[in-house]
Design a protein that fits this description.
The chain is of the alpha/beta class. It has 2 domains: about 15-255, Rossmann fold (3-Layer(aba) Sandwich), CATH 3.40.50; about 260-455, N-(1-d-carboxylethyl)-l-norvaline Dehydrogenase, domain 2. Helices cover about 50% and strands about 15% of the residues. It is built from 21 helices and 11 strands. It has helices at about 25-30, 30-35, 55-60, 95-100, 125-130, 140-150, 170-185, 185-195, 210-220, 260-285, 290-295, 300-310, 320-335, 340-345, 350-355, 360-365, 370-385, 395-405, 405-420, 420-425, 425-450, and strands at about 15-20, 45-50, 70-75, 75-85, 85-90, 110, 155-160, 195-205, 230, 235-240, 255. Helix 4 (about 95-100) crosses helix 6, helix 6 (about 140-150) packs across helix 7 and helix 10 (about 260-285) packs antiparallel against helix 12 (about 300-310). The longest helix is centred in the middle third of the chain and has 24 residues, at about 260-285. The protein is globular, with a radius of gyration of 22 Å. The protein starts with 16 loop residues before the first strand and ends in a 12-residue tail after the last helix. D-mannonic acid binds next to helix 10 and helix 14.
């Protein structure tokens, strides 16, 4: 088929903006936007979605009226659906628009996909918030928006974190309140009384969009879409908290509302995300590029299964259906038609491992066992940051400093970035240190094959 000329455009009226989103990326589109499209009352709920650091995604999406194609990819094939719930796609730097929307009583929900690392960065915006300037961090922008909402007496609303953090509603609340307190005590009080911070566990594997995905949609659908998103058929959303100004009927699309989210959160963070991190670090060191490739390597697969055995001991309750969840994960990870790149998962390791490895390691040790499988995840990360210095991480400077050390002292310094108490435990340091050696020893040729920078053999004594 020749390349179509018609770009996606809206033929029916867009829903009014009642949700504002921060973090317009592929996952937001395959998840929250998809759920909103599938809510029974979708016609009443439009999303204004703001990008993070760069305007690009907003520019592309705005040129096609916010519409984009969700390509659901299974072993059996692809299915295509145009999603129209994003009715406004905006450059995150347009803080004035963001603030206006938060000050509107019609806005009922703010959703966030700002990355795990961003929740702790709001303090950088204190000077501009105090001087009336424009904040640059997501938490800073949220505080500015909530201040406007208070000033306009626009009423309560819900902030819904959709990042892979345990108790993400509380993390969001703490980040917002601690910054707001510094700006204006009255604002912090208002937020405390009027803003509900909802915790959620989100799940849908969504790799970054590639030029091939764009070409596929043009060929298969007969229109031009520069912002399609390829995702798996599986999707899951568990939410806990109040929506004082209402919300879409996301349950129509399968979302589940619970009183106690922690068990679901732990299941997702440990079993799915934990396995992802093992595969990302061990897999790349062994020369693999994607999740499906790494999973087919028995060494990586065993490391995952061992970690799951440890984690499963701390996931009580029949309703969690851990054995079935594990079987489903193997199938999802094995979906070789979804090229989920390990390099994408490997970023921000110091933040991710705090949620993915540390709780299982602590729980295992608390029960008198070693926690060796959780420790192996940390060991793989430690070997990986040695093999690929300068990678993206909120603690990249501290990682570089740790790298100046050698032997167990280096391991200890890295461990301290994840959990200071564990780093003070000599047994844990030795355990992690001993487990990282094999990754480094085995790494050079495999790493070279993967294009990973040279492994510095001097880093482990
Ligand atoms: C991944 C997640 O990049 C990562 O850290 O583990 O993005 C994962 O793909 C999603 O949480 C799946 O729902």
């Amino acid at each position: 088929m020749s390349t179509p000329r018609a770009r996606l455009s809206r033929t029916t009226p867009a829903a009014p903006v009642r949700i504002v989103h921060l973090g317009l990326g592929a996952f937001h589109r395959s998840h929250q936007a998809w759920y909103t499209q599938h809510a029974g009352d979708a016609g009443e709920w439009g999303i204004a979605s703001f990008t993070g650091r760069r305007p690009d995604a907003a520019t592309v999406l705005a040129a096609q009226d916010g519409l984009f194609t969700v390509v659901e990819r299974s072993d059996a094939g692809d299915s295509f659906e145009v999603v129209g719930s994003i009715v406004e796609a905006v450059d995150g730097a347009d803080v004035a628009r963001f603030v206006d929307l938060l000050a509107a009583p019609s806005t009922a929900v703010v959703t966030l996909t700002i990355t795990e690392a961003a929740y702790g960065l709001g303090a950088a915006d204190l000077p501009v918030l105090l001087s009336g300037g424009e904040p640059t961090t997501p938490i800073g922008r949220l505080v500015a928006g909530l201040a406007a909402r208070k000033n306009h007496d626009a009423g309560p609303l819900a902030v819904v974190s959709c990042d892979n953090l345990s108790d993400n509603g509380t993390v969001a609340r703490n980040g917002v309140l601690s910054l707001a307190r510094e700006v204006d005590a009255g604002l912090a009080e208002w937020i405390d009384a009027n803003v509900s911070f909802v915790s959620t566990s989100v799940d849908r594997i969504t790799p970054r969009t590639t030029p091939e995905d764009v070409a596929l949609v043009a060929e298969s659908c007969g229109y031009l879409d520069d912002a399609p998103v390829v995702t798996e058929p599986f999707h899951n959303w568990v939410l806990s908290g109040d929506f004082p100004a209402g919300r879409p009927r996301w349950e129509d699309a399968g979302a589940v509302f619970v009183d106690d989210i922690e068990p679901y959160e732990n299941r997702k963070l440990w079993l799915l995300n934990g396995a992802h991190s093992i595969l990302a670090y061990a897999g790349q060191l062994r020369g693999h590029a994607t999740v499906a490739e790494a999973l087919s390597d028995p060494l990586c697969r065993d490391a995952v299964e061992d970690f799951w055995d440890e984690a499963a001991r701390h996931l009580p309750g029949e309703e969690l259906r851990v054995p079935e969840y594990r079987t489903a994960l193997l199938e999802r990870f094995g979906n070789a038609r979804i090229a989920h790149h390990l390099a994408q998962i490997g970023v921000d390791g110091s933040t991710k491992l705090r949620m993915r490895a540390v709780p299982v390691l602590r729980a295992e040790r608390g029960d008198g066992r070693t926690g060796a499988a959780a420790a192996r995840m940390i060991a793989a990360w430690s070997a990986y940051v040695a093999a690929r210095p300068g990678g993206q991480d909120p603690q990249s400077e501290a990682i570089a400093d740790a790298d100046l050390l050698s032997g167990a002292a280096r391991t200890q310094a890295l461990l301290a970035l994840l959990d200071e108490e564990l780093a003070r435990d000599g047994d844990v340091v030795q355990l992690v240190h001993g487990l990282s050696g094999p990754f480094l020893d085995g790494a050079p040729t495999a790493a070279a094959a993967a294009g990973v920078g040279g492994v510095r053999s001097g880093t482990v004594a």
